[in-house]
Amino acid sequence: MTRRLPPVTRWIVPLMVALWLQPAWSAPTIPDIPWLHDIYVTLANAGVEMDKAVGQALRSNQVSMVANVLFTSLAGFLFVWRFAGFAMRGFNLQALLELMFTIFYVYLLLTAYTTLIPAVGNAGRFVGDTMAKGISGAEGKATFAEAIFSMLLQLTLQPSCEGFFHCMGKAGMMAMGVTQAGDLAIVILGIVATVVETWMQWCYSIAYAVGWFTIPFLLYPRLSFLFDGWLRFFCGVIMYDLVAKITLAIVLLAFQSMQMQAPGAFGATIEVRQPFDLIALFLFIAIGVLVLCVTGTFANALVAGVAGTSGVLQDMARGAAKPFHR
User: Fold this and answer.
1) b vs e for 114-128, b when ≥16 Cβ sit within 10 Å of the residue's Cβ?
2) Who has greater pLDDT, 199 or 262?
3) Tens digit of each residue's pLDDT (9 = 90 or more) over 204-255
4) Minimal CA–CA distance to 242: which of 203, 206, 189?
5) I want to staple 94 with a disulfide (CB 3.0 to 4.6 A). Which of 115, 187, 284, 325 is the partner?
6) Phi/psi of residue 9, each to 5°?
7) Helices (H), the chain
8) In whole angstroms, what is the distance from residue 326 CA to residue 323 CA?
9) Which residues pair with 159 in a beta bridge?
10) Which residues in 203-238 are b (16+ Cβ under 10 Å) and which e?
11) What angle do the packed helices 34-59 and 144-153 form, to 10 degrees?
């Protein structure tokens, strides 16, 4: 007696063979909307100018003086406090060397800040862009939020009713209400995607501007929570950039897949009679908004364990001082 394969198994193998034999998938072309593109170009230029302004401010004499005075004051007080301890408990060469190495490491971080942090930020952005473009297959200079908004704005929703009296009837009012809800959902997803993309840039600028002033507090273990908090925030910003771009790419890929299943759908006019005519669109938009809204939660979960920087610094100073102690 021949055992029949279950229905699922019977179509999985042909599907895998078809996917293997099909030509390389190419993303559909993103439509170009001039007025929308100008908005995103303006936002991108504002982000670039924000980065430049923060970098120039941190390199200015006034801000440098504030950071150096803060470091010198904290380091000088720590030096005096440690020598007061030596006067009461006796001199300890290893403790002095640990103190000197700790001050040196903190000063090294302070001087390298304006070079190290932009390098880390640019590396994180590059990784995010590369992974997101690899997922979505997007090409060109349009951002992911612009690509999503452009695809959705090509979709025309039109209530299916004829004449004034028919449109004012129950069926016509339902069609117009569903059409307005669809247009509103499209705008909401576009706004959420734009806010997520803009917030990536703003978060980095805020973290870059604030972090320099938390470094001197690494000299004191009880005050190092300030730097640990900033470091967790900065790592969260880098991960937010990465996760947000991947999330935007997945949302874009979902709508591209919808376009591939129904070619020309985003350039066509959809006659709306009842809510079921837009159920697929509402579903895709709801999932997209939900995923984009929880992006920050995903990023924070990935960096929840970042802490204890002062302890690492003290261990490094202790390890560096040990060879000099006999």
Assistant:
1) eeebbeebeebbeeb
2) 199
3) 999 999 988 888 888 888 888 888 888 888 988 998 888 888 888 888 887 7
4) 203
5) 325
6) -65, -30
7) 7-21, 34-59, 61-89, 93-136, 144-153, 163-167, 170-211, 225-261, 279-293, 295-302, 309-321
8) 8
9) 272
10) bbbebbbebbbbbbbbbbeeebeebbebbbbbbbbb
11) 160
What is the distance between the alpha carbons of residues 117 and 204, in angstroms, rounded to a whole number? 10
Only one residue has tokens 């009880």, namely: 222
CB atoms within 10 A of CB 169: 13
d(CA 78, CA 311): 17
Listing DSSP states for 44-107 in one string gives: HHHHHHHHHHHHHHHHSHHHHHHHHHHHHHHHHHHHHHHHHHHHHH---HHHHHHHHHHHHHHH
Q: Write down the pLDDT at residue 18.
A: 38
Residue 36 tokens read as 């929308």
**Are the beta carbons of 30 and 151 closer than 8 angstroms?**
yes
Q: What are the tokens at 150?
A: 């452009």
- The tokens of 92 are what? 């300890």
> If you count DSSP H runs as helices and E runs as strands, how many of each does the chain have, helices first?
11, 2
| Interval 286-315: pLDDT, tens | 888 888 888 888 787 777 766 656 566 666
The three-class DSSP label of residue 272 is: strand
* Nearest of 216, 246, 203 to residue 111 by alpha carbon: 216
**pLDDT tops 70 at residue 83:** yes
Q: Residue written as tokens 């959420």? A: 192
What is the C-alpha separation between 26 and 253, in angstroms, rounded? Answer: 11
Residue 37: both structure tokens together: 């593109």
Give me 227's structure tokens: 């730097």
